[in-house]
């Protein structure tokens, strides 16, 4: 007879997500989740075949949380919104964000695929990118993503100068985005001459 399921699948995912928020994605184990739930491992195995399946569900939850954070950003500047959302996620989910970005894993690719539609929709709405080809827009996005990821890591790990407040960080994001787009536009105009 199968063990009685004391916890919903969502409760188990939430527990694993809480573990990842504090200690990173690779800290999730079936035993640790069971311990945090005050349970044996049986209810977890009723819902998940293995820890990898549970970690993938945690990534899906992270995608949902990231989409929620991004959805609340509406400055009119899509790249700024993406950067601010990344910084907010790095602050709120410091260990998970750092572990996710800095440690080799297969989850980042899955996360990027899960966020792709939302990000592309945001980028395509940016009026400052009119006249650029899709390839040029993606190159601009990659440059901004590299900067924003580095800045988010620095924010998440308290590596920025203490006197640099939230407003200055947002100004830095906005200014860098403007500089990248301006440089791309100048390069495009110079190549067309």
From TrEMBL:
Boundaries of each HTH tetR-type domain copy?
6-66
Q: Which InterPro entries match?
A: HTH_TetR (IPR001647)
- PROSITE patterns, sorted: HTH_TETR_2
Keyword DNA-binding tagged: yes
Q: Which residues bind DNA?
A: 29-48
Q: Which domain of life is it from?
A: Bacteria
Q: For this UniProt record, give its keywords in alphabetical order, as a comma-separated list.
A: DNA-binding
Q: What is this protein called?
A: TetR/AcrR family transcriptional regulator
Species this protein is from: Evansella tamaricis
The top of its lineage is: Bacteria, Bacillati, Bacillota, Bacilli, Bacillales
